[in-house]
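In response to reviewer comment 3 from the previous cycle, which asked for concrete evidence that the modeling workflow produces usable outputs, we include below a single protein chain processed end to end. The sequence was submitted unchanged, and the resulting structure tokens are shown without manual editing.
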Amino acid sequence: MTLDDGQSSHVRRAPSVTSTTSGTTMGDWKPTTEWVQTWKQKLPLQTIMRLLQVLVPQVEKICIDKGLTDESEILKFLQHGTLVGLLPVPHPILIRKYQANSGTQMWFRTYMWGIIYLRNVDPPIWYDTGVKLFEVQRVKDIS
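The workflow returned the following structure tokens.
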């Protein structure tokens, strides 16, 4: 692929997948165990795994002790149980005071005028006035 400035770059494309008449898909790419492990390690599963380590044995014990085959008792147990002590303590909330700067002031001013302008379009109070939502400035070319 060639860019406008004459430099070339390589584009990595996904392999094409075609459909057959039987409804299955065929292609060059097949998932592998290594591929699954590369993205599985990046998933934040620690909290879920901790919950499962604690709750699965408890649910299995209830099912065996009471001979449950219906999920309603299990759902009651899970709804009325507590997770205090199981989950990690959340990070403290960091409170920062607002410090004004030119960028935030410009954003807030633009946002507020946008709200004022748009909320007053119907009835059209801005009709036949000099009020505009924005103005385009033209800069002279210095060549």
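The longest helix spans residues 46-66. We consider this sufficient to address the reviewer's concern, and the full set will be provided in the supplementary archive.
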